[in-house]
Automatic annotation (TrEMBL):
Residues 1-20 form the signal peptide. This is Cytochrome P450. Pfam families: p450. The keyword Ribonucleoprotein does not apply. Belongs to the cytochrome P450 family.
Amino acid sequence: MDSTMPFALLLALLVPTLLHFVIRRKYSSYNLPPGSLGFPLIGQSISLLRALRSNTDYQWYQDRIKKYGPVFKMSLFGSPTVLMAGPAANHFVFSNQDLIFTQTKAINTILGRSILTLSGEELKRVRSALQGYLRLEMVTKYMRKMDEEIRMHIDLNWVGHKTVKAAPLAKRLTFDIICSVIFGQGIGPIREALATDFETLVQALLSLPVNIPFTKFNKGLRASRRIRKVLREIAREREAALQQGHSSSADDFFTYMLVLRSEGTHSLTVEDIVDNAIVILTAGYGTTAVLITFLLRYLANDPDILGKITEEQEEIARRKGPNEPLTWNDVSRMKYTWKVALETLRTVPPIFGSFRTAVKDIEYHGYHIPKGWQVFTAQSITHLDGNFFSDPVKFDPTRFDNQTSLPPYCFVPFGGGPRMCPGNEFARTETLVIMHYLVRQFRWKLCCEEEGYRKDPVPIPVLGLPIELETRSPPEYAHA
Ligand code: HEM
């Protein structure tokens, strides 16, 4: 045996025990939740990350809930953390005013002064501006651009191909859509470089903030500088156009935010507007790409559901002229397709959970949560709970036939409360338009039936979901 082994074992036993006593002393007057903080800094982070990667996170939560109950403490990503399980816990985490978004050093440094890092009145103003930009009425205006991007992408990347990898294609498509909306026109040739830089930036958001060459954090920081440079130039151009009265449309994000500033709605500088554009771009493509990827994965194995979706989409197509773009009216008819998407979000939520930090001592179910501690709620805990969704492992879109019968806060793919995802209408619209064109043009088979997926931290099939494509003829199908 290695001579350092007994020492390491001793340390492994001693450190958590010592920490336990230190915490007990420090919070002697508190009724802390049960559980263990584990090793300092590391805590249960590696164990949870491992469970996410092997897609056993649901079991990971359940094992601990069985042991400690639905509220328990642990240590995640360097902070003491309380996991809370159940709809009431979701409501508490999403709505409590004394809980703020957890701001890691990586997020603060890479994303700058954005909606994710602001607080107080400034946060309210920025949140309301972003919500305004992504509200339904605005999304209907973006539909033409979405429709155009989607058709172009399919012609270029799907038509004529025998096999494609669905996951990277879905990511690229959702990235192109959000770019074309946020920037308006004029970034065509630099999209490629931006797409690569955004991938590097996203990878760095959960990294350790070690700024030495070749670390994820360092690469992310450099990518964010390059992105900022490009976006700053575009923002300044739009500002100059606006000042000279040349701006014809307020649909691009920069012009929209600059107009709101001139009306006194917020006081963000150009630099801040750039930071918020980076957040919308970052939040707005990987998540929807997961939904598209897993929709394709489920539909490959379920000809009945695919048949029903196709019927719905063909019916919509029959009312339109050839090559006529989809409108909001068309999307609002895609009710069944959206139920299938909701069931996909229930079974594979793109965001595995939400973290908040207590700004003062708070209490939940008789337990004290000290100031500075994190709280954490995981979506799969309620999404896969048989008390709310009967036979929860079954893929069954009909459970969304009557959505109002679901207890509040048990289905939370877009979060909830004042920080609920402002991009949900955007995500819904692009998902439905993408599915309209894909199901009408193609049938597909999984190249690898056994392909699993990991959460890294967003769910991704391990091989990127290679699928075999077959082109179908829409008119023939429509009249079958
Ligand atoms: C299926 C797709 C999507 C899912 C499942 C999703 C999920 C979520 C969730 C769960 C949150 C809240 C996190 C929390 O409370 O801890 C969130 C926040 C956010 N999402 Fe989405 N999202 C999606 C698409 C989008 C899109 C398309 C955009 C933009 C175009 C977007 C922009 C944002 C922004 C800016 C926030 C932060 C809100 C704030 O800080 O107040 N999301 N999203």
